[in-house]
Amino acid sequence: MANKSFEFISGAECLDLANTIGGARGQTNEIEYLESYQDLLNWGRLKGLLSERQAASLELKSKDHQYEANEVLEKTKELRKSIYHIFSAFASGQIPSDSDLLVINRELEHGLHRQRIVWGSSGYEWGWEEPTELDSLLAPIARSAADLITSADLTHVKECTSPSCSWLFVDETKNQSRRWCNMKTCGNRNKLQRFRSRQIRHEQK
Ligand SMILES: [Zn+2]
C-alpha cells in the first residue's frame, strides 16, 4: 500500500525498520507494513533516508528490475528479523545469537564502502553516496544497528509492554519510565484495560 502510515517512534533507524511489523509478532494481529518494494521506498522517504527525487528515481529503476527489487525487499525483511531478534534479546537481558549478528555484519561488509564525507546541517559529517542502487537503503540501517549495539543507549532499548505489540524503542526518559511504544495507542489501550478490570472487580464485590 503506497499510503500506509508508518510511525517513527523508536529513536533509531534500525528499530524503526523493526517496527514495520505491527501487532504482536507471530500472533494473529501481526500486520505487515512492507508489502512491496514501493512500501520500502516510502518508508525510506518518510524516514528521511531518501529525498523525494531519490525515491522516485529508485521506484522508476525498480519497475525495470522487478525481480531484483523483490530480492531487496526480502533481504530487508531478513535484516529486519535479525534486528528485532537482537534488540528484543537485549531488551530482555539476553545475549543475541551469532547468526543474527552475522546478518548485520554481512550487510555492513556489503554496504559500508558507500559511506562518504558529506556536507550536513552543522558541517561535514558521515553520510552516504547518492542512493542509486536498489539496495542503497540497507547499509544505513545496518550501520544504525551497529551504532546502537555499540552505544551506551543499548541498555535503554525496550520492547513495548503491551501483549498485543512487539515494537522496540530507545527509552530516552530521565528515569527510564517509558513502558509503551506509543502512549496514544498501546498506553491508552492498557490504561483502558486496567480501568475495565478494576470496574469488573468492583462490580463483583
Ligand atoms: Zn506498543
TrEMBL record:
This is Zinc finger CGNR domain-containing protein. The lineage of its organism: Bacteria, Bacillati, Bacillota, Bacilli, Bacillales. Residues 157-199 form the Zinc finger CGNR domain. PANTHER family: BLL6575 PROTEIN. Pfam families: ABATE, zf-CGNR. SUPFAM superfamilies: Jann2411-like.
